[in-house]
Amino acid sequence: MENASHGHVNDAKSTVQTLHVQPQYKLPPKSLSASDKFEGSSDLVNLRYHMGPVLSSPINIYLIWYGKWAASQKMLIKDFLLSISNFNPSSPSVAEWWRTVSLYTDQTGANISRSVLLAGSHRHRSPIKALPRRPQERHLPNLNLG
User: Fold this and answer.
1) Which of 36, 39, 119, 126 is the most buried (most CB within 10 A)?
2) Is residue 39 part of a domain?
3) Is residue 144 part of a domain?
4) Which family would the database say this protein is a member of (predicted)?
């Protein structure tokens, strides 16, 4: 049953409250050619752009599993990462958030990539706390990731 005056939904299992947001101010739009070099497509988020590249080609992710991970735990992480590239997500979703992130551009106009690939993974039997603080090459796992 919904109580329209308060935006609440009640049933035997849960209570959900709807948040009604009424903006009290609007920031003035920023020109992309402004001397402050703010980049992005949102008037509400100002990120200072330092003229570096953005991840504009497919993003390859290599996972390193330290210690013991259950198959279900690994699947949770993999599902999260793969959901970034979902072009028909249900709402709300990671893909919706990443779509907003992908609107940002570098100085060439290249957008952040919406393509995320799990390019490889490696299991390291020792937990991460067992590794030295300043690893030398001989202490690092020999990764054959592609």
Assistant:
1) 39
2) yes
3) no
4) Belongs to the EXORDIUM family.
Helix H or strand E encompassing 38 = strand 38-39
In a domain, 31, yes or no: yes
Residue 30 has pLDDT above 70, yes or no: no
Tokens matching residue 97: 């958030």
For every residue of 63-131, DSSP letters joined together read EEEES---HHHHHHHHHHHHHTT-SS--SS-HHHHHHHHTT-B-TT-PBPP--EEEEEEEEESS-GGGS
111 and 59 in contact (C-beta within 8 Å)?
Answer: no
Structural domain total, the chain: 1
What is the residue range of 103's domain? 27-127
The mean pLDDT value of the chain amounts to 69
- In this predicted structure, what is the pLDDT of residue 69? 92
Query: Residue 62: which pLDDT band, with cuts at 50, 70 and 90?
Result: very high
- Asked if residue 47 belongs to a domain, the reply is yes
pTM of the predicted protein model: 0.52
